Amino acid sequence: MTKLDIINEVSEKIGLPRNVSEKSIESIIALIKETLAKGEPVILRKFGSFHVKEKRERVGRNPKTGEEATISARRVVRFKSGKYFKQIVDSGVSSSS
After folding, report:
1. What is the pLDDT of residues 39-57, one digit of tens each?
2. What global pTM score does this model have?
3. Is 55 inside a domain boundary?
4. Rounded to an integer, what distance in angstroms lies between the CA atom of residue 10 and that of residue 20?
5. What is the C-alpha to C-alpha distance for residues 8 and 44, in angstroms, rounded to an integer?
6. What is the rounded distance in angstroms from the CA atom of residue 94 to the CA atom of residue 87?
7. Residue 31: inside a domain, yes or no?
8. For the chain, what is the domain count?
């Protein structure tokens, strides 16, 4: 499913015009990005949480040549699914809430 698919589904299910659904989805995504960029977690009950993890600089290896290379320090986003989300995915049952 793509972002466009999500926008169309939201528009159809809620009965909003497509452009309003698109603005809503884009606003939610922008807010999540801004919050994570500040280093703050985003917690969505019954879904999961996103948080930023700091990774330190380290030495890695090129798998083809075996040559060592320095991997710079960086920040990565991690997602941890919530209990309810895991149950829905595991059961394969659709939920509307």
Report:
1. 999 999 999 999 999 999 9
2. 0.77
3. no
4. 10
5. 22
6. 11
7. yes
8. 1
